[in-house]
Amino acid sequence: MAEIINMPRLSDTMEEGTVATWLKKVGDTISEGDILAEIETDKATMEFESFHEGTLLHIGVQEGETTKVDEPLAIIGEKDEDISALLSNANPEVSGEKGASVSKEKESENAVTESADELPEGVIVVTMPRLSDTMEVGTVASWLKKVGEQVSEGDILAEIETDKATMEFESFQSGTLLYIGLKDGETAKVDSLLAIIGPKGTDVSNIAKNFKSDSDSASSETSGEETAKPVETKKDVVISNENEKSHNQVSSAAPNGRVFISPLAKKLAEEKGINLSQVKGSGENGRIIKRDIENFTPSTSATASVGKFVPSGQEDFDELPNSNMRKAIAKNLVKSKFTAPHYYLNVEFDMDNAIAFREQYNSLPDTKISFNDMIVKACALALKQHPQVNSQWFDDKMRMNNHVHVGVAVAVPDGLVVPVVKFANEQSLPQLNAAVKDFAGRARNKKLTLEEMEGSTFTVSNLGMFGIESFTSIINQPNSAILSVGAIVQKPVVKNGQVVPGNTMKLSLACDHRTVDGATGSLFLQTLKGYIENPVTMLV
Predict the structure, then answer these.
(1) For a FRET experiment, which of 267, 387, 455, 495 has its CA 20 to 30 Å from that of 60?
(2) If you average pLDDT over residues 41-59, what whole number do you get?
(3) Going by CATH, does the domain composed of 1-91 fall within 2.40.50.100?
(4) Which fold is adopted by the domain 340-539?
C-alpha cells in the first residue's frame, strides 16, 4: 500500500525544509535505509533516510523548493500502483504554524482524528516532534509543565528522550496546558499526540479521544517494541532471618510488582547507586521522576539493611527497556558491520618521544594536553595527506572530503556518542584538549546538540585510559575508517641492537574496503607513525 512521505523535522527548531538534492528518482526501487534526498534545514543540510520499502512513485517537492514540516514530500508504494486518490488529497496532515500538527480525516483509512477546521478556536494539538534525523519514537523523560498551567512561547514543556540524547522540547505556542497525552516514561511514535494547548477552560476531551483512537489504531500494526515498559524486578525479596517476605517496590509499585519510573530517573538512580525501593515517587500515580532521585536521602536503617539478607540460590533480575539511543546504536552498528566490508590494519608505535614531548609541553604555564589530543591532531594532519581515508561511501558515489572533521567516541551510561571536532587539522593541541574535554563533559550530561554530533569524516576511539592494550572498532558510517587506540605499555624493546626498556602503543585501523585499499590504509598509518613518534613535526 502506498505511503505518503512527509517533510521530516530534522532539528528541534526546524519549521520548514528545502530539498537540496534528490538522490532517487521516480521509478527507482527504495530499500529501508536508502538516502532519499538531502534536506536543507535551519541548521545544516542533512541526509533524509527512507523508513519504507517499495518504488518511488511521486516526488511532490522539487529540488530547490521549500515546504513546511509534515507536508507531503513524496509517495512510495508498489510498482505501477494507482496513487491518484492520494494525489487528489495532497494534504493528508495539517501542520500548525510552529510545529503542532493535526491529522485530517482520511476516508480510505476510516480515520477518526479531528481535522483542523473542527478544532475550537485557539486550540493547538502538539505532537511528538522529530528531534533527530533518525528518530522514529520518543520517550517523555519528564514534564516540566502540569495540566492547568499557563504556557508561554519559548517555555520548556518537557524533556524528550530520542535515539541520540535527552533534549528539552520548547513550546511554540502560548495558552493553557489542557491535556497531556503521554505520561513520564511513556513512549510514542513521532507525530503521536503529546499535548493540547488552548484557552483556559476549553473542553478538549473529544479531541484527545479521537486523536488517541487514530494513534492506537496505527500502533496496533507495529511490532510493539515502541511501547514503553516499566522496569520490572522480582516481586518478593527475603529481608529477614525469619524469611519474612515483602514487596521490594514499597513506594512506586503497582500490584503486579512493577516499579513505575521515568527513564531519566532510572539512569540517575543507577549512577548514584540508589535503591529504588526506598524512593517515594512524586509523579502521576506515584511514578518516580528526576526530581525524586535528585532530592533523595537514604535513611540510615534502610541503607544498612540493603543486600544484607539475600538467600543463596534465589534468581533475581531487572529488565530495562532498551532506550531510543541504545536501539539507534544497535541499528547503525549492525548496518555498518554487515554492509561495509571491514578489514583491520594493526600497528605498534614507539611512544618514548611522545611521552617526553607531552611532559615538556605540559611544563608550559596554563598548558595541559593528553596523549589523545596528540593522536587526534596527528590523525587530522595525516588525513589531509591521504584524502582517500577521509572519504565517505554512498550507494551511487564516493565523497572525497577536503575538510577534516574528527569524531571522538565518548562512552555515556546509555551507550556511545561521537561529538565531532570540526577542522581538527587547523586547531592547536591546547584547542583540541579544550574542545574534547568540553564535549566529553556535556556528552555525559546529555547536553550535546545534534549539530555537534554530525558531520564526522573520520573517528578515533580510545580505550587506552581503561587499560585496554588493543581492540577493533566498527566503522561509523558513512565514514571509511575508524582508529582504535590502546594503552601505552612499558616493556623491553630492541633499539640499536640492544634490549632496553621502552614504551609502545598498539593501534588498529578499521577500513571499508570499498573506499580504502590495503596499501592506502598502510600509507596513512606510516604518515601517522611519523607524527606520533616525532610529535614535534606536528608543530611545524
Answers:
(1) 455
(2) 82
(3) yes
(4) Chloramphenicol Acetyltransferase (3.30.559)
pLDDT grade, residue 87 (50/70/90)?
Answer: confident
Using alpha carbons, select from 210, 199, 191 the residue that is nearest to residue 174.
199
- Please state, in angstroms and rounded to a whole number, the distance separating the CA atoms of residues 289 and 183: 11
Residue whose C-alpha is closest to residue 185's, from 231, 218, 216:
231
Residue whose C-alpha is closest to residue 201's, from 147, 157, 155:
147
Q: Grid coordinates standing for 466?
A: 581503561
Q: What is the pLDDT of residues 356-394, one digit of tens each?
A: 999 999 998 888 999 999 999 999 999 999 999 999 998
Cα–Cα distance for residue pair 303/299, rounded to 1 Å: 6
Q: Which three cell numbers stand for residue 346?
A: 594493526
Contact 96/9 with Cβ under 8 angstroms?
no
Taking the C-alpha atoms of residue 520 and residue 508, their distance in angstroms, rounded to an integer, is 15
* Tens-place pLDDT, residues 128-182: 888 766 778 889 988 999 999 999 887 889 888 887 777 888 887 889 999 999 9
What value, to the nearest 5°, has the Cα angle with vertex 8 and ends 4 and 11? 175
- In whole angstroms, give the CA distance from residue 148 to residue 151: 9
Where are the domains positioned within the chain? 1-91, 231-319, 340-539
CA dist 492 and 501 (Å) reads: 5
Name the more confident of 482 and 207. Answer: 482
Q: Which residues pair with 343 in a beta bridge?
A: 511
Helices (H), 89-171: none
The secondary structure of 254-292, three-state, reads CCCCEECECHHHHHHHHHHCCCHHHCCCCCHHHCECHHH
The answer to whether the 1-91 and 231-319 domains have the same CATH topology is no
Q: Give the integer Cα–Cα distance in Å for 336 and 477.
A: 6
Q: Is pLDDT larger for residue 355 or for residue 292?
A: 355
Give the three cell numbers for residue 473: 572498532
- Which positions are annotated as active-site residues? 513, 517
Highest mean pLDDT: which range of 203-212, 218-227, 360-369: 360-369
